[in-house]
């Protein structure tokens, strides 16, 4: 009987414990792999998140909030700024490219972003659209690849947007909750709240009517850009002014400005000049994104601590399983030694069982981790704007595999040594 048959029969002899041990290793490996893919997604998202736009301007408020809403399409913007600021920044000698965006509406939860069509060439170069062409007039729209795939949109389709940055059902739920809170208020304030409610309802109807009257036509589908723009809907800058009744020049506002400076000195000059203006903030985009990544890293560190504890538990499970098996196989080992089997044969049979259990659990765990990544990738991208490539080799995955095998060898060596060093005649006499 060769050594591989011995290993296989030993594992089958205690199949319940063997399966539990492999599952422990598999779940630990899957969790570790998912953390690796998450880290890679965060790092790539940070690198590709803002392109060449080193300066971002918007209403005063949180810098991270401005960066997340402008480039990652997550959360609400800090507010609006006058369109006149945009016209002024475009004339600055230090600014190579300036793009304003208008946001505030959504298509089934995907943000509608108004921006000049030249943005795509500056941000992504000369990439060809997956189908159709870029928009050129009011009401025309280009859909990000992820949003188009999820919503089933194609060139020629029409749609109507909803007010706000959340899905209409979500917004309806929030509206219902607010309405309930108003209804449960004190009776003494009923007349005043009723009057205010009538006013808000009238404004809400105007807002709703504006969106219902404005239709978009899909003229193009973007290729996969592997950035948060994959889950956005793009149209002309003036869509928000048309929908919300800001036709007058002095009423027009924009949400944020994305500025590509000509030089580092130019970036500093623009930042200092416009950051000093009342009601306006200008920031270094990279610093704001780095702050977001640092916050995410702290959360990831907590997950890593839990993962390391899982690794420890998996190693202990493997060790206990092999110790229990070793106590049953003392006479088997003694017989192998008495009939003259070489030491390496005995050692391979003892250590090989641990390596077999570890390798089996590892392979299943890697498959489980990649499958979980594939199943969660779309949801993760929708929720947090983090894009992972579930079927590619994650950084550190080979190190994970090698470490798991070494862990199996180390855990197997302890019970193997305990059994091998006992005198075979003593084992039989006992």
Automatic annotation (TrEMBL):
Compartmental location: Cell membrane
Keyword Membrane: yes
Biased segments, Basic and acidic residues type: 172-209
Region feature (Disordered): 169-209
Entry keyword set: Cell membrane, Membrane, Transmembrane, Transmembrane helix
Single GO cellular component term: plasma membrane
Chain ranges passing through the membrane: 17-38, 305-325, 345-368, 398-420
Function description: Part of the ABC transporter complex hrt involved in hemin import. Responsible for the translocation of the substrate across the membrane.
Oligomer status and interactors: The complex is composed of two ATP-binding proteins (HrtA), two transmembrane proteins (HrtB) and a solute-binding protein.
Listed name of the protein: Putative hemin transport system permease protein HrtB
Source species: Paenibacillus chitinolyticus
């Amino acid at each position: 009987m060769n050594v591989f048959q011995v290993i296989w029969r030993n594992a089958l002899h205690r199949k319940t414990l063997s399966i539990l041990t492999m599952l422990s290793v598999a779940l630990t490996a899957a969790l570790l792999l998912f953390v690796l893919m998450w880290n890679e997604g965060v790092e790539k998202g940070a690198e590709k998140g803002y392109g060449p736009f080193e300066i971002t301007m918007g209403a005063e408020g949180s810098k991270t909030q401005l960066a997340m809403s402008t480039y990652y399409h997550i959360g609400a913007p800090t507010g609006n700024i006058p369109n006149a600021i945009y016209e002024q920044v475009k004339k600055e000698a230090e600014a190579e490219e300036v793009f304003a965006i208008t946001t505030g509406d959504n298509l089934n939860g995907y943000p509608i972003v108004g921006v000049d069509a030249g943005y795509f060439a500056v941000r992504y170069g000369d990439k060809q659209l997956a189908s159709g062409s870029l928009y050129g007039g009011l009401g025309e729209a280009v859909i990000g690849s992820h949003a188009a795939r999820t919503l089933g949109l194609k060139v020629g389709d029409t749609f109507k947007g909803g007010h706000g940055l959340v899905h209409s059902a979500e917004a309806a739920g929030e509206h219902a909750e607010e309405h309930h809170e108003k209804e449960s208020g004190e009776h003494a304030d009923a007349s005043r709240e009723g009057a205010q409610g009538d006013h808000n309802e009238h404004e809400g109807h105007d807002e709703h009517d504006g969106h219902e009257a404005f239709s978009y036509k899909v003229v193009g589908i973007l290729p996969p850009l592997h950035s948060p723009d994959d889950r956005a809907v793009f149209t002309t800058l003036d869509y928000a002014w048309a929908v919300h009744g800001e036709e007058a020049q002095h009423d027009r506002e924009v949400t944020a400005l994305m500025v590509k400076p000509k030089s580092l000195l130019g970036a500093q000059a623009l930042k200092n000049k416009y950051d000093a203006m009342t009601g306006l903030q200008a920031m270094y985009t990279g610093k704001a994104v780095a702050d977001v990544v640092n916050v995410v890293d702290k959360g990831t560190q907590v997950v890593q601590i839990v993962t390391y504890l899982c690794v420890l538990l998996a190693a202990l499970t493997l060790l206990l399983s092999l110790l229990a098996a070793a106590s049953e196989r003392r006479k088997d080992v003694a017989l192998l030694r008495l009939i003259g089997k070489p030491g390496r044969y005995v050692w391979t049979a003892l250590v090989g069982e641990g390596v077999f259990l570890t390798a089996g659990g590892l392979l299943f765990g890697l498959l489980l981790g990649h499958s979980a990544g594939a199943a969660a990738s779309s949801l993760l991208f929708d929720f947090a704007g983090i894009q992972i490539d579930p079927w590619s080799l994650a950084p550190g995955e080979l190190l994970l595999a090698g470490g798991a095998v070494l862990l199996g060898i180390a855990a197997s060596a302890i019970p193997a040594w305990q059994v091998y060093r006992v005198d075979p005649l003593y084992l039989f006499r006992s």
